[in-house]
Amino acid sequence: MRLSPGAMVYGRDMMLNIPIEADFQLLRQRREARINYNLLQENKRRIHYDYQVNDQVLKLVPQPNKIENRAEGPYTITRVHINGSITIRLSPHVEERINIRQVKPYRQ
Question: What is the mean pLDDT of the chain?
C-alpha cells in the first residue's frame, strides 16, 4: 500500500486545485543575470593577454609540489586558434594544442 498520510486519512491525494502560474521569461532573465554576475566575479582579477604567433609562453604544471617548478618552458606559439587555445612547439617535431588558461606569457 503506497499511500501518503493524507491519502490514508481523507481517501484522496492532497494536491491543491490551484493552477500554477510562472513567469518563465522573468525566471530566465534572473538566471542569466545570476550567471553573468558570477562570470564577472570570477574574471574580475584575470589579466587578459592577446597571444600572437612566435610569442614565448610558459606551460603551467597541473599540480606542482613544493619543490617542483610551477611552469615549464619557454615554448614558442606556432598557431593561435579562435576557440581560446594555442598550438605550442615543444621540440622541433612535436607540437601540442593547449588552452590559454594553462599558459602564461614569458617575460625576459
Answer: 90
* More confident position, 6 or 59: 59
Q: What is the CATH number assigned to the segment(s) 56-105?
A: 2.30.30.140
Q: Which DSSP string corresponds to 12-74?
A: S-----PPP---HHHHHHHHHHHHHHHHHHHTTTPPP----TT-EEEEEPSS--SSS-SEEEE
Q: Which three cell numbers stand for residue 12?
A: 484522496
Q: What are the strands of the beta sheet with 71-80, ordered from one edge?
A: 94-99, 85-91, 71-80, 56-60, 103-105
The mean pLDDT of 21-46, rounded to a whole number, is 92
CA–CA gap between residue 66 and residue 83 (Å, rounded): 33
Structural domain boundaries of the chain? Answer: 5-42, 56-105
Residue 1 pLDDT > 70, yes or no? no
